[in-house]
Amino acid sequence: MKEKVTIITGSSGEIGQNLISYFSKIKNKKIIAIDLEEFNNSNNIFHFIKGSILDEKILNELSNKYIIEEIYHLAAILSTKAEKNPELAEKVNVKGTINIFNIALNQNLKNNVITKIFFPSSIAVYKIDSKLSSKDNLIDENTFCNPKTKYGQHKLFCENLGTALDKYGNELNLKIDFRCIRFPGIISANTLPTGGTSDYAPEMIHNALQQKTYTSFADQNSCLPFIVMPDAINSILSIMKCDKSKLRKNVYNITSFSPTILDLYKILKNQFPEFLLKYKIDRKRQEIINSWPNFIDDNQAKKDWGWKPEFNLNSAFKNYIYPNFKK
Ligand code: AKB
User: Are 236 and 252 in contact (CB under 8 A)?
Assistant: First the structure.
């Protein structure tokens, strides 16, 4: 009798660590975590594999040995790093995701299960065309999907492929259950992101909390949508447990607050009067920020699976970031 497992790729990354902390409290959930980086989490998991999602030997072994009920495919190269390493990014972001889809199709063929895949997409799939819209307009899932960055292109391609495999299956009529959230920037109190463009917000906050000066790579009017990590984790859990018949889409926006850098600075300065913010603008990163929307429309997620952020801008600082901050 094969064991039933859940796979988490990119398990040592920000979302991975927080998701695993949650899952390790659930009895009988057998988590297999995969990452290139050592697993620095004391949580209980069934099996950790130090390896790559590009290693087909690892993936085939998992596929043959287990019944894979769910895959949280979090491994990715984020926007800034992907612009600097486009070939590596394409391998990880596109080929890696195709490998995950293939495992799920194989599960359907061999074990007759429809594997649920959670795929984190991003506001990077958007590029605001300033002739047609303002960065301040509310952008829904269906417009301005014409990404400027490699990372955005990879995410959009995988969203479309996952949606097609969920709706129509492959040539053998094998299917997957593909559930995807387009995340805004995520702010965590206990981890920092690497290689992203929305990183300025968590970096600034973590520096202020450590009484350090922060040099921002984006100007003071830069604005993006954000959520905090507990809301990101709740969103993943909610969409994954939602009855499939209620999901009218495969891909949903979610958001909570959209501060400018100046707004964040004012909040932090109020709490830490010594905090100093300097600027050294990185033109390429600034252009990426300028191409992403300030506000995204998450009404569809609210209607279909009850998405509602617990934290707004003020409560995020007061009730989550300040009390939970860890270096
Ligand atoms: C990035 O900045 O690349 C990510 C994202 C918004 O997807 N944080």
Answer: no
Q: What residues contact residue 129 under an 8 Å CB cut-off, 6+ apart? A: 144, 146
Q: Which of 83, 197, 285 to mutate to test the pocket of ligand 1 (most atoms within 8 A of CB)?
A: 197
Q: How far is the CA of 265 from the centre of ligand 1 (A)?
A: 20
Confidence band for 131, pLDDT divided at 50, 70 and 90 = confident
Rg (CA), the chain: 19
Let me know how long the chain is: 327
| Type of residue found at 170 | N
Q: What single-letter amino acid sits at 141?
A: E
Q: How far is the CA of 78 from the centre of ligand 1 (A)?
A: 6
For ligand 1, atom 6, the nearest C-alpha belongs to: 185
Quickly count: other Cβ atoms within 10 Å of residue 270's Cβ.
10
pLDDT at residue 154 in the model: 98
Structure tokens that stand for 283 in this block: 């033109």
pTM, to two decimals = 0.97
In this prediction, residues 142-162 reach a mean pLDDT of 97
- Which amino acid appears at position 101 of this protein? F
Relative to the CA of 288, which ligand 1 atom is closest? 2
As given in the structure block, the two tokens for residue 108 are: 């359907």
**For the segment 299-319, what is each residue's pLDDT rounded down to a tens digit?**
999 999 999 999 999 999 999
Q: Which atom of ligand 1 is nearest to the CA of 79?
A: 3
Residues contacting 321, CB < 8 A, separation 6+: 187, 189, 205, 209, 228
DSSP string, 93-119: IIIHHHHHHHHHHHHHHHH----EEEE
Q: State the distance from the centre of ligand 1 to the C-alpha of 2, rounded, in angstroms.
A: 37
Pocket of ligand 1 (CB under 6 A): 78-79, 122-124, 151, 183, 185, 193, 196-198
Amino acid 124: pLDDT: 98
Compute the distance from residue 130 Cα to the ligand 1 centre, in Å. 21
Query: For residues 34, 40, 46 and 52, what is the CA-based torsion angle, rounded to 10 degrees?
Result: 10
What does the pLDDT read at residue 42?
62
